[in-house]
Hints:
This protein is of the alpha/beta class and about 290 residues long. It has helices at about 50-60, 80-90, 105-120, 125-140, 145-150, 155-160, 170-175, 180-190, 195-205, 210-220, 235-250, 270-289, and strands at about 1-5, 25-30, 35, 65-70, 75-80, 95-100, 255-260, 260-265.
Amino acid sequence: MTVKRLGKGIGAIIPEFPQGIDLTNQIAEIEIDKVRANPHQPRKEFNRQTMDELKQSIQENGIIQPITVRQVEDGFELIAGERRLRACAELGRPSIPAYVIPVSSDVEMMELALIENLQRENLNPVEEAEAYQMLSETFSLSHEYIARKVGKERSTITNSLRLLTLPDEILRDLKEQKLSAGHARPVIIITNKEQQLNLWRKIKRDELSVRATEALVKNIISSPEKKSAPQKQPSVKIYKTVEDRLMHITGSRVKIKGGEKGVIEIEFYSKEDLGRLVDLFQIIEDHAQ
């Protein structure tokens, strides 16, 4: 394994990593067949056209940005740079320059891979949300911790995760970047899945801007619903219908108590869950203004 020394300009070549990662200023030329995939790779989609463009660039200029790996017992495990690795493999190259760094845990690998992809803006909105979901659910990291690691607001992490509640058809367009996250976020406020799909179709058909989409959603949620004749004591059935609707909106258990006047109780299950509810009400308030 040959090792090349780098000068002081390493920061221009290697993306910044969190403090505590010991970078050794060494690039190793390693055999491609000794590198195994990162099981926690955030990127899932690899566009064929951009891959071909990358291969052409590598043929003409070589690898400008080494991949990042950690050493394991039987070789190396990829942390970041799967597109470059795939392109070199398709070109039939036997080896690739790699920056070998000490990484002690899977969660640290996931953090580094996510940070590298976010810095390069390589992830589509769904991949980004799924990466946050893995950090949150698989590795039990709080939204606040994830936000601090990737340099974003906690509400940004929470709102990104909420994209995953959208119907598969909308998620597919987000993955293929036929729909922006800016268009998708207002759609989440609409609770009925069929209404979400109808709105998505209208956005595409009429080529609505993000601002126009937000205005349309504001109009939908502020439109008065048809109400039945007033009753002095709403029936249990009506309460149940309203509770179910509020549960669908909030994602939490809701209980209505009282008669013509009463109390609405909304349950939350953790500090992060309370923060999610606060963010949801803030979004609704913003669109109501």
